[in-house]
Amino acid sequence: MSITSDLALANRLADAAGNAIRPLFRAAFAHEAKDDASPVTEADRAAEAAMRRLLGAEAPRDGIIGEEYGAERPDAARQWVLDPIDGTVSFMAGRPIFGTLIALLQDGWPILGIIDQPISGERWVGALGRPTLFGGQPARTRTCRALADATLATTGPQYFADHDAEHFMALAAQTAHKRLIFGGDCYNYGLLASGHVDLVVEAGLKLHDFAALVPIVEGAGGTMCDWNGDPLNADSAKDGGGHVIALGDPARLEDVIEGLACHH
After folding, report:
1. CA–CA dist 171, 253 (Å, integer)
2. pLDDT digits (tens, 9 = 90+) for 159-178
């Protein structure tokens, strides 16, 4: 398949997920806690099921890695990575800052990604070698003259292990910490791609949490890597990893890594 046809399929996947999610937003829905105590709702499951049905019909040879229903054809070179609702806590609270994440991996590397916010109708689309689009128009990150000027975002301090939290707060102290943003999940990365946020730093992410974000951030002029500065791929979430940096201005990357390395 060409990247054009892959993008068209990815957009149809986002449409299908949104159609499953919207009727349940701020409505009565079933939910429960998973083994790790994180919540899952009938909207999460309905959205992923809708995407899987479409992939089964249109890309039956491709693999699928989904948050709710696991992996199919795990040895396939092409893998669709699905997070039907990234930010389930926000969804349950009626906050429209969650998103559906759709990624395509080729040999473990993200080559296509979508962030779709089905309530506001906002959609970021990124693909390797192409400019990121937001609402069909090019999205661009913004320059950041110094780390002290950076607006930093993260989903929440409760998601960091103690040791990681120390490093994160050491970095936060070097940024424009009066503007530190908590909450937002994948929506923060869309805001970064559109030039409204400078930096997102998180730990403990799974592949479905970050795979779609890489082409979006990088196609908008930013960079994504782990806390050591290494590029993100399917192995980045293994062995307790999932340490992610998204940075709008790549010129600040060395400053960010140095800031994370020091916690005294």
Report:
1. 12
2. 898 789 999 999 999 999 88
